[in-house]
Every structure is written in structure tokens, then in C-alpha cells.
């Protein structure tokens, strides 16, 4: 499938730009779920990690806590208004750098990261293959990818007044196949009411 990249990016910015200022007030109790998911990645002090589609930076303090002051925490998002909220929420100091970028085109060197954390990201990518392939490019072999949401697919669909469908990209069979073609191997998959977490490992090059 081909995409009009500029139109796709504009649509994401319009959608999330309009929601940015209210983002943190909608689900103020998600902090512990983010921290628990970050703990499950297996990051170590000194590691370098990217929060892909970081939004208002809800994961940044937990990522900093696990990699420590000697580690590197980066945040990337396509929506300027979301990045502006990071500072307003008092999370700017948790990151070494924040950049305005599409995760399918990152200004990072090959293999420079130990892990990528992406919360609520994958279903918003118009071209998930190119996004996941680019994330694989910037992560070292055996590095980690965590695709997270503080609620599972069924609970999220119910919240949005929708039904989950079998062609949902976050469904295990689809996600496993997609990861396998983009440089990742799915290691574990949890889709429960209070957590969606898929953990994958970067394949050797
Ligand atoms: C559902 S929000 C989640 C934000 C944050 N991770 C959280 O959990 O609070 C999705 C975020 O992904 C960003 N996003 C969507 N597509 C993107 C892309 N291609 N590259 C970078 N960021 C993207 C949006 O701007 C938005 O901030």
C-alpha cells in the first residue's frame, strides 16, 4: 500500500495536537502501569533507550529511573504540541534529548540504542512496517522493543465504543508476523484488561 506521507503526518499532528493539552488529565492514574512495563524491558543502568511517540513524556521518568544518570533517554514524537507538554508536565529533565521526528525516519545512527519503548504508538503508524524497520535499524542486535498500552485491546475498544477485529495490527498473529519481517522476534505477548505489552528482541543483522 502506498501512503501520502505528508498527509499522514499532518493527520497525526492534527489529531494529537488537538488532544495534547488534555492528554495527562484524561488518564492520570497510568503512572504505575508505565513504570511496571518499563521494568519488564530488562534495561540496565547505562543503557540507551528511545521513547518512540513519547507524547507528553509519561514514560520518561520511569525510563530514567532504570537507566540512571549514566544512561541515555531520548524521546521522539511527530506532534509539536505533545513535545511542548513534556516540559509543562515537569518531565523535560528526565530526557537527554527530545526531538520532533517521525519514527520511520529517525536522526539516529545504526544500532545506537539498547531499547525502544513505544506506548500507544503502533496503531497510529500509517506504515507500521517502515516504522518497525526503522526502529530495528537504530537498536543493536539483541536489543529490545516494548510495545505497550495501559489497557488491553478489548478494554480500549470498549472505551472507544468499538469492537476488536482480527485484522488489528496489535493482535498476536499479525504482530508476530509483522515483527518477523521487520527485524524483530516476538518474545512475549500480554493482552489483558489492564495491560497490553509485547516484548521483542532485535534479530542479529
Ligand atoms: C496514543 S499517543 C501516546 C503518547 C504517549 N506514548 C503516551 O502513552 O502517553 C501516540 C503518540 O504517537 C505520536 N506519533 C504518531 N505517529 C508517529 C510517528 N510516525 N512518529 C512519531 N510519533 C508519532 C503521536 O504524536 C502521539 O503523541
Describe the model.
Pfam families: Methyltransf_11 (PF08241). Keywords: Methyltransferase, Transferase. GO terms for molecular function: methyltransferase activity. Residues 50-146 form the Methyltransferase type domain. The protein is an alpha/beta fold and 205 residues long. The protein has helices at 5-19, 23-26, 31-40, 60-67, 80-88, 128-138, 153-159, 172-181; strands at residues 48-52, 72-77, 97-100, 113-119, 139-149, 184-192, 195-202. The chain has one domain (2-202): Rossmann fold, CATH 3.40.50. A 7-stranded mixed beta sheet has the order 3-2-1-4-5-7-6, sandwiched between helices. Residues 12, 16, 53-56, 58, 76-79, 82, 102-104, 119-121, 124-125, 131 line the site of S-adenosylmethionine (SAM).
The total of beta strands comes to 7
**Would you identify the regions where 5 or more consecutive residues have pLDDT less than 50?**
none
Specify the CATH architecture: 3-Layer(aba) Sandwich
Relative strand content:
15-25%
Tell me, what is the CATH class? Answer: Alpha Beta
The string of secondary-structure elements, in order, is HHHEHEHEEHEHHEE
The total count of helices amounts to 8
Strand order of the largest sheet: 3-2-1-4-5-7-6
Give the oligomeric state.
single chain
Main beta sheet: strand number and arrangement? 7 strands, mixed
CATH fold name, please? Rossmann fold
Given helix and strand content, the structural type is: alpha/beta
Number of domains: 1
**Helix content, binned percent:** 25-40%
Q: Write out the distinct hetero groups bound to the structure.
A: S-adenosylmethionine
What number is the mean pLDDT? 95
CATH superfamily: Vaccinia Virus protein VP39
Shape: globular
The first-to-last residue Cα distance is 26 Å
**Rg to the nearest angstrom?**
16 Å
Amino acid at each position: 500500500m502506498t501512503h501520502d506521507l505528508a498527509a499522514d503526518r499532518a493527520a497525526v499532528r492534527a489529531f494529537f495536537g488537538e488532544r495534547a493539552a488534555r492528554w495527562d488529565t484524561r488518564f492520570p492514574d497510568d503512572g504505575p502501569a508505565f513504570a511496571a512495563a518499563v521494568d519488564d524491558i530488562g534495561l540496565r543502568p547505562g543503557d540507551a533507550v528511545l521513547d518512540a511517540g513519547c507524547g507528553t513524556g509519561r514514560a520518561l521518568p520511569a525510563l530514567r529511573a532504570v537507566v540512571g544518570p549514566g544512561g541515555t533517554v531520548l524521546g521522539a514524537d511527530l506532534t509539536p504540541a505533545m513535545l511542548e507538554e513534556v516540559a509543562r508536565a515537569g518531565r523535560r529533565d528526565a530526557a537527554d534529548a527530545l526531538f520532533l521526528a517521525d519514527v520511520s525516519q529517525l536522526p539516529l545512527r545504526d544500532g545506537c540504542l539498547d531499547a525502544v519503548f513505544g506506548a500507544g504508538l503502533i496503531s497510529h503508524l500509517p506504515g507500521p512496517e517502515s516504522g518497525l524497520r526503522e526502529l530495528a535499524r537504530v537498536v543493536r542486535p539483541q536489543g529490545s522493543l516494548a510495545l505497550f498500552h495501559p489497557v488491553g485491546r478489548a478494554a480500549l475498544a470498549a472505551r472507544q465504543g468499538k469492537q476488536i477485529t482480527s485484522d488489528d495490527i496489535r493482535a498476536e498473529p499479525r504482530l508476530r508476523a509483522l515483527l518477523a519481517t521487520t527485524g524483530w522476534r516476538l518474545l512475549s505477548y500480554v493482552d489483558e484488561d489492564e495491560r497490553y505489552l509485547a516484548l521483542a528482541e532485535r534479530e542479529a543483522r
